[in-house]
Amino acid sequence: MRYLPLTSDDRRAMLGAIGVKSIEDLFVDVPTSARQAKPLDLPPHAGELEVERELAALAAKNLAAGQAKASFVGAGAYRHHVPAAVDHLIQRGEFLTAYTPYQPEISQGTLQMLFEFQSQVALVTGMEVANASMYDGATSAAEAVLMARRTVKREKVVISAAVHPHYRETIETFARYSDGEIAVNAPDPTQDENLEALIDDQTACLVVQNPDVFGRLRDLTPLARACQAKGALLIAVVTEVVSLGAITPPGEMGADIVVAEGQSIGNGLNFGGPYVGLFATREKYIRQMPGRLAGQTVDADGKRGFVLTLSTREQHIRREKATSNICTNAGLCALAFTIHMSLLGSEGLRQLARLNHAKAVQLAEKLAVVPGAKVLNQSFFNEFTLRLPKPAAPVVEKLAADGILAGVPASRLYPGVNALANDLLIAVTETATEAQMDALVAALKGAV
Amino acid sequence: MRYLPLTSDDRRAMLGAIGVKSIEDLFVDVPTSARQAKPLDLPPHAGELEVERELAALAAKNLAAGQAKASFVGAGAYRHHVPAAVDHLIQRGEFLTAYTPYQPEISQGTLQMLFEFQSQVALVTGMEVANASMYDGATSAAEAVLMARRTVKREKVVISAAVHPHYRETIETFARYSDGEIAVNAPDPTQDENLEALIDDQTACLVVQNPDVFGRLRDLTPLARACQAKGALLIAVVTEVVSLGAITPPGEMGADIVVAEGQSIGNGLNFGGPYVGLFATREKYIRQMPGRLAGQTVDADGKRGFVLTLSTREQHIRREKATSNICTNAGLCALAFTIHMSLLGSEGLRQLARLNHAKAVQLAEKLAVVPGAKVLNQSFFNEFTLRLPKPAAPVVEKLAADGILAGVPASRLYPGVNALANDLLIAVTETATEAQMDALVAALKGAV
Amino acid sequence: MDARNTHKDSPAIIGAHPGTATGNRALMIEEQLIFEQGEPQRTGVDLPEPPKVTDRLGGLARKTDLGLPGLSEPQVIRHFTRLSQKNYSIDTGLFPLGSCTMKHNPRLNEKLARLPGFGDIHPLQPVSTVQGALELIDTLAHWLRTLTGMPAVAMTPAAGAHGEFCGLLTIRAAHEAKGDARKRVLVPESAHGTNPATAAACGYEVESIPATPRGRVDLAALKAKLGPDVAAIMVTNPNTCGLFEDEVIEIAKAAHDHGSYFYCDGANFNAIVGKVRPADLGVDVMHINLHKTFSTPHGGGGPGAGPVVLTAALAPYAPTPWVVHGANGFELIETPEGPAQASVGRLKAFNGQMGMFVRALAYMLSHGGDGLRQVAEDAVLNANYLLARLRDVMSPAFGDGPCMHEALFDDKFLEGTGVTTLDFAKALIDEGFHPTTIYFPLVVHGAMLMEPTETESKESLDQFIQALRSLAEKAKAGEAAFFQAAPRLTPRRRLDETAAARKPILRWRPPAPAQAAE
Amino acid sequence: MDARNTHKDSPAIIGAHPGTATGNRALMIEEQLIFEQGEPQRTGVDLPEPPKVTDRLGGLARKTDLGLPGLSEPQVIRHFTRLSQKNYSIDTGLFPLGSCTMKHNPRLNEKLARLPGFGDIHPLQPVSTVQGALELIDTLAHWLRTLTGMPAVAMTPAAGAHGEFCGLLTIRAAHEAKGDARKRVLVPESAHGTNPATAAACGYEVESIPATPRGRVDLAALKAKLGPDVAAIMVTNPNTCGLFEDEVIEIAKAAHDHGSYFYCDGANFNAIVGKVRPADLGVDVMHINLHKTFSTPHGGGGPGAGPVVLTAALAPYAPTPWVVHGANGFELIETPEGPAQASVGRLKAFNGQMGMFVRALAYMLSHGGDGLRQVAEDAVLNANYLLARLRDVMSPAFGDGPCMHEALFDDKFLEGTGVTTLDFAKALIDEGFHPTTIYFPLVVHGAMLMEPTETESKESLDQFIQALRSLAEKAKAGEAAFFQAAPRLTPRRRLDETAAARKPILRWRPPAPAQAAE
Ligand SMILES: Cc1ncc(COP(=O)(O)O)c(C=O)c1O
Ligand SMILES: Cc1ncc(COP(=O)(O)O)c(C=O)c1O
After folding, report:
1. Around Cβ D63, how many Cβ atoms within 10 Å?
2. pLDDT confidence of A183, banded at 50, 70, 90?
3. C348 and A52 in contact by Cβ < 8 A?
4. Distance of alpha carbon B282 from its chain centroid, rounded?
5. How far is CA D64 from each of CA B251, B252, B350, D61, rounded to the nearest angstrom?
6. Ligand 1 midpoint to CA A327 (Å)
7. Whole-angstrom distance between the N-terminal and C-terminal Cα of chain A?
8. Which of A3, A92, A431 is the best residue to mutate to test the B interface, defined by the most B CB atoms within 10 Å of its own CB?
9. C110/B302 touch (CB, cutoff 8 Å), yes or no
10. What is the pTM of this model?
11. How crowded is residue A150: how many other Cβ atoms within 10 Å of its Cβ?
12. Per-residue pLDDT tens for C232-291?
């Protein structure tokens, strides 16, 4: 078998060196009742060609966004063009097949990259420090809530109704067995949500998203002030990190913790994972942060180098007292993020954000011709909510049958909320051509 | 522009350091009449996404063999499965973006690989030594003829009529301006060719192919004896190197020079290039060989290392007296060959060859049901000649329209040779499924 | 001239190697931070002019500069290529990091995960357009169920720790469904840190179970601690000492007798895959690190995937989304309703780690049922070979029985040499090997835990053994200074971790303007 | 303890570094030949059982063992990864190899060349199924014609030397068509070796033209040698001294006046692409190295592609196959007939180097007309920056005028130091740079030819300059021994090339059985 270097001669010689007769002698500690005498009921080994055929057949049963006539699906995952250099570099064996950098002398590549990643995340979010990544944006948000509770030693959590419902659910799951209420309004893309009212002196934190799940932009400064007044922390969620190239970052609007989904930069859609959770906060909170941190130091020759640091926060040292149980994180996705961000730079990220916004505005304007349909947003970045004259879900299904991925029906995120049944979330990135926009408009005209 | 690091500030500063005012001052030696005042009439620079769209559109206009319903096209280029590890490794920047290993201390990777390549080529061809590659199999064959003429100091060349016509034409082009006749019989896949008769004491070399262009196998031993008797060299051509896993190698049958197309191992079809020419011969002829040679030596610490050697044969030292004008060769394709061959090993190459042969036999038997069609070969490896009841070219066109690539009409290789008009060369590799064979059989039944 | 020995005259060029003006060492090139190379005007991408529109940013347009460095593509390629060359990896050498299962990562799997049909599909596309993806998840789930003998599997956890969290949530939900609020979770001393951390995250008190001198769970002590308020025991098997819990069936029975669940940490599943089904050991719930047993690359720290297999009793509480067979093909249940109404809810934003699923399934299909069994046997054989060949010069932590997939040593053999486990590990680096896991598990003094995995050849193990033996002899020969100065030949020598933690520098900052500096 | 200076006590670990038992040097790992690692039974592939058939091999079944080593995939990945780490490359650092144009190789181009529509099409598929491929070749031809101002281009040559061969064949064919059998080709002393070698391969006598003290072709000497039997002159422009032949128009005229053709070696086209059209210089035929100017990767020695642009007079003789516009799309003329009846014939088995064509066109489309012009300007600017910054410590070969894309120095500045150009180059290796081209062109003593290309940043040039300056000072300071011992920090130190050539070992051979050895 191609992945197994031992030959039968090797095996014989090694058993001899060990001083046992058969491989079974090495499994003596396994209760005989539990030993499988023969291979389980599974297909036998197969060659590359056969495996490739089988999986390619499965892949062919999916409609890839790039192969669809058009795709405007967003709501927390965005299809951007990732430069070829990114995928080339993350596949270098020294990055791909390395472990967590526990031996810094032979892990400076990963460690310096993580230091650069942390610096980039801090810069784009407008925060002071960032960690070396979490599983995804939603788990970052959940960890932020737990951190806020630890930090201000209160339990109540206020979550904006316009935070991505999957993020809210993830927070609820993580917070499931710690007491303290979670307050949420009813979602309404046509109204500004009153959040100040929910913040009281029991409140540990307020969680808001910007742009929110309906695509709306909001100045967080008043909310930050409100939180400060009550001694609560403001947690800002960003699901489309490209927006930070065009929008005032949460850090500048007074957020205490910024969590984001980093997938848009350097990472593909991958049906939802692996993605990369960004986690940034203020310097004074670092000892409460979850996750790994790369830090700068010097070596025995006095040269600058990097190490994992402040691990006394982490499970492998602190065990049940750790700030989080996370161990494996999203290292390689963070690398992809860092490489793509290095290619962009300030100039490239600004241009990319401008391009996304301009194309979104362009489509929003084109949609005016769809009878009975209305863009609900006053403001937006690259995604907005279109209210249709009829339920959105069947319309999306119909267009999908014609190879057009129109967007995400709000009802998929808010099942049972009738007020949102006709709403369709439409995302537009640099990958959308004007022809594809026109195809969507035409198809919607035909479907409503 | 993404590939150009200099900023306008850099340019200004550098012009200053040089002491000139403008970039034009550096082009002063160019006659003003010849300087282009402005950009030529070509499109402006474009981003990755745009370039990718444009070229992907061109690619989409071709019928890729892997996307065809079935493909049996061979005749000198073969579609084999190349393990994913091969393409991964040849893309490592240290291999991909290195130059010819002129500085051995920092080129041991390329040099050791070439030494391994040369060793593998010598082993599979059954010869004593091999060089570090030529452009392709045809130019290898042409260089072999020139080498034979140098070595035995005679001009006449005998070429078997069953040598791939493109190889014969390439030899003729290379030999175009050196005198001496080139003798060739009329091609006939139904008869054994009498070559002995053409070899006389003016003859420098005999060029034969095995398996020949019609797929037939031939014991070269009598030809080798005939050549020896007349003091001529036997040059054996192999266009499908996978065959050497199943067939007695030319070296064992007395060939003096073996040239081959290495594409089948590690390299894709690429519409004909880049490929990799293999060139092997006897130790006593090394100083007459064309192309680069990697050799073993020791370094200043007495450790084994590798260098380019015997370069006194080459153009950069010998200039007009060089054994060949070749400089750039097929390095990276040789690397792909070496990696794939390393994965195969004796066992894998043997199995691969057996699999190819068995599938070819299987298809040859299935074709018995095609009315009026007949397999002409007594013997073959993974390719044979099917004589149809009607001209093959239109049949191939018709099947191609239905997405089946049936093979190569002999008329494409021997235009105007009416005797071969109905002949179709059919190649079968491990990539062909039985369903695809049946599809071909069915389609041929419908077409004849 | 004879270059052979002239280097003797210039010792200075090692370590700090002042011998070069650049500080570079031939192929090992010093590399600055991207922030130190960037130019604001420069960019490594080319984008078309946006359509002219009036902005809809609602007055929130970013005003401050982003402060990111600008680099061209050639600079970026060179930067990250150079950084990568400062890493050790499986692709470059033996990586015997115990408990981490650093096995070969097949390149086929990387290729397949990038097929547009897997890599370029959106988690919120209509389910009708992702039937192949759901079928892949379902197929992978079938393999996992068959290999473990468990009836159900939760696919969404993103890593082992996430899987532990998932598992304990289902346990707690199951107890509470019975109105049985239990408070304690029992965890062996030798457990990985994520075990107690996870139990705490689920609101449980953690109590530790001592180990026997044989490096196993002390069954008697366990029974003594079991009681009506124990929600679960978390036992790793094979355990972190590389030993199979030979009393595991009794352990499970004891737990069940007290109404507690048996959470098994499956990080070491590689030792028994295809040979032993956890279901046959009495396991109620177990996570599997696809990035260990099933070879998805570690990527310098992640990503991973940690599916959790469950008994029928715990299955109803599995997190959303669920992939189920429906009338017209596969369906995705995304909220706690219908069959999933008892679900503990969502663990992350979207479906599982699809990219890892493709790789893991490709790995499984490549090995097949027969090959996976061989994987376990070769992994165990390799570890025992190391144990046998090192027994006489190093000190095995537990007696002379066989180990499973990893061999554990303590630092007795270094006693009195002045060489610590850390020094020993650093010396191994100069020899061209990644060190073993050190100082874990905590139950062993100066632990060295070595897991070769099945993808190492005998030749490479023999080299490793030779290096370890010569180092052990060197240590005993009293060359402590040599070890304390190691590593010498790395891009960086030992790094000052205390300084790093005392005054943390966690990000680059623009250099303070000259006048400000004093 | 203080590790800081302990390395001082162990100088031995550099060079041969006996300091390690394995001979490895941390991340730099010694690697044996695959033949020394193989096991006959092992293989790195899995193939299905073949269908049962009776063989048709006509009695030629291979009987002898192949003798190839058997390795598993993990071993192969590690072997070639380790080997790669012993290479210097553009991706790792500055590669200022004069005359080689070692510029950045964009990864986009690698990706596009692998699209199945390009990589997985057969050269003998029906032409109707490869229209996109033919259109790509036609589009690339259009760019090449536009950039050179020449009306025709032959696409099949596989490299520069192959292109030279193609060019001289067309010239000879053209003369002979006029019944004018010319015998001589004039080639400057400074020419690349392939020029005279190619002329000889076409049956011509080669005569060399001297250079002026200004490093250009001596026009007077050229005129003196021109005559009715001169078939062509082969002039490289910009020439191999990195200088533009400022009298090129007169040179062309002189040749044409004698009925000779002007073959231009276009290897240095990078200096003038988009700025100067060879047609405007009187060139009749010129090859272009796509693997230089148009960035297809060098791959450690190849493959390349060497299309040849031609005047209308020479076009009819272009080699087959030809891509032409036909009634129903593109057509391929594969034999000398119809419009191609005068063709010199086939140069290689199939169409051109398609894989290189895709990369080159992607490069052109990415830069556009404007970008290519910028390429030439930046390439020339970078070279002149090196020249200007090094003028005072090294010795420019030719006066103080500007150079084109490469700067040429001789070894005057090393006079009396005991340091040779070779020693100087080897010392540069330890500093982390690939040496310049050395001892070429032959017209300059101890030549050092440095071509930075446009894809180097000012920062990297400044580092390079600093290293060169400090080495130049070191040499003048009389540290000859330091240079003679260089390189010290490489995987191997200087290799004995004389021994290699004296008793060539060109392949691995199985070790002789013990008893045989004496
Ligand atoms: C025994 C054990 N349990 C749990 C974990 C945690 O798994 P992960 O890192 O995937 O979260 C690990 C891996 O580090 C482990 O070795
Ligand atoms: C000036 C010059 N002419 C010709 C050549 C030969 O080109 P190639 O190596 O592509 O055959 C080269 C490249 O080495 C060169 O530098």
Report:
1. 7
2. confident
3. no
4. 21
5. 11, 9, 11, 9
6. 7
7. 57
8. A92
9. no
10. 0.97
11. 14
12. 999 999 999 999 999 999 999 999 999 999 999 999 999 999 999 999 999 999 999 999
Instruction: Answer for the pair A256, A126: CB distance below 8 angstroms, yes or no.
Output: no
The Cα–Cα gap between A233 and A151 comes to 9
Q: From chain B, pick out residues whose CB is under 8 angstroms from the CB of D212.
A: none
Q: What is the pLDDT of residues C104-124, one digit of tens each?
A: 999 999 999 999 999 999 999
Per-residue pLDDT of chain C (518 residues; tens, 9 = 90+): 333 333 333 333 333 344 799 999 999 999 999 999 999 999 999 999 999 999 999 999 999 999 999 999 999 999 999 999 999 999 999 999 999 999 999 999 999 999 999 999 999 999 999 999 999 999 999 999 999 999 999 999 999 999 999 999 999 999 999 999 899 999 999 999 999 999 999 999 999 999 999 999 999 999 999 999 999 999 999 999 999 999 999 999 999 999 999 999 999 999 999 999 999 999 999 999 999 999 999 999 999 999 999 999 999 999 999 999 999 899 999 999 999 999 999 999 999 999 999 999 999 999 999 999 999 999 999 999 999 999 999 999 998 899 999 999 999 999 999 999 999 999 999 999 999 999 999 999 999 999 999 999 999 999 999 999 999 999 999 999 999 999 999 999 999 999 999 999 999 999 877 654 33
- Cα(C270) to ligand 1 centroid in Å equals 13
* Whether the Cβ atoms of residue A382 and residue A356 lie closer than 8 Å to each other: yes
Helix pair B331-366, D73-84: axis angle to 10 deg: 150
Q: Three-state secondary structure along D454-492?
A: CCCCHHHHHHHHHHHHHHHHHHHCCCHHHHHCCCCCCCC
Q: Are A327 and C457 inside 8 Å of each other by CB?
A: no
A165-174 vs A137-152: helix crossing angle, rounded to 10: 50
The set of residues, in sequence order, having a beta carbon less than 8 Å from that of B138 and lying 6+ positions away, is: B164, B166, B167, B170, B171, B261, B277, D346, D348, D349
Listed in sequence order, the DSSP H helices in D25-126 are 73-84, 107-113, 116-119
Pairing assessment for the beta strands A277-281 and A129-130 based on DSSP bridges: antiparallel
Answer for the pair C307, C288: CB distance below 8 angstroms, yes or no: yes
User: Does residue D510 have a cis peptide bond before it, meaning omega lies within 30 degrees of 0?
Assistant: no
What Å distances lie between residue B294 and A314, A420, B63, B130, D67, CA to CA? Answer: 53, 72, 39, 10, 20
Between chains, do A331 and C300 touch, taking CB under 8 Å as contact?
A: yes
Alpha helices in C57-99 (DSSP H): 73-84
Residues of A in contact with B431 (CB under 8 A): 49
**What DSSP string describes D76-91?**
HHHHHHHHHTTB--TT
Pocket of ligand 1 (CB under 6 A): A 327-328; C 99, 159-161, 192, 194, 236, 240, 265, 267, 289, 304, 306
Q: Please report the pLDDT score of residue B176 as a whole number.
A: 87
Is there a contact between A180 and A157 (Cβ–Cβ < 8 Å)?
yes
d(CA D285, CA D275): 18
Nearest-angstrom CA–CA distance, C47 and D373: 20
Please name the residues in contact with C375: beta carbons below 8 A apart, sequence gap of 6 or more: A4, C270, C273, C274, C367, C454
**Residue A47's closest chain D neighbor by CA?**
D46
Distance from Cα C160 to the centre of ligand 1, integer Å: 5
D5, D72, D78, D80: best to mutate for the A interface, most A CBs within 10 A = D72
Q: Extract the tokens encoding A50.
A: 């056969």
- C220: how many CB neighbours lie within 10 A of its CB? 11
Q: Residue D72 and residue A5: Cβ atoms within 8 Å?
A: yes
- Residue A162 and residue A153: Cα distance in Å, rounded? 26
**Pocket flag, ligand 2, residue D236 (CB < 6 Å):** yes
